[in-house]
Predict the structure.
Amino acid sequence: MMSEPGNYNPQGNYPPGSYNPPGNYPQGSYNPYMAGAAGPMPPAPAPGAVPPAAAPAKRRKRVFMWFFIAVQVIFLIWLIAGVAGTSGSGASAHTQAIQYCANNGWKVLYKSYSDCVTHYGNTLNGASDVGKGIGVGLVIALWVAVDIILGIGRLIVVFARRGSK
């Protein structure tokens, strides 16, 4: 018996009844030779029976989301503390300027002692601001790098889970 193209006939070109896989399997029971057969077929529901209620959907744990938010909060606190914590350099800059300008140390670059204290103190404050800007830039660069690494890791996990379903 020849099968038509596009139709699968498990008996192929064998005469009817001559192709029998090993074992006698009654209709509707497990047959390992059938594609997709995973086990015995469940019994048919009784007529008029109400199907059992489905189990409530398991709520997903959002561990990554909370971890990601925690990392963002830590970086934000670090950034705010770094900007706010280094603003008090005025008094120490003035003290350093007085120590530098004492004992005629001002004669090389400045006209007078008061000129030395004023300008050298301003220079130290400016250097402090530049250092603060560099520090903020480094914290932001590290923040971006950590977010990229976390994002790539999340994508790998999501695509791995999609492939396994």
Notes: The helical segments are 63-85, 90-101, 113-164. The chain has a mean pLDDT of 77. Residues 50 and 56 are 17 Å apart (CA to CA). The radius of gyration is 39 Å.
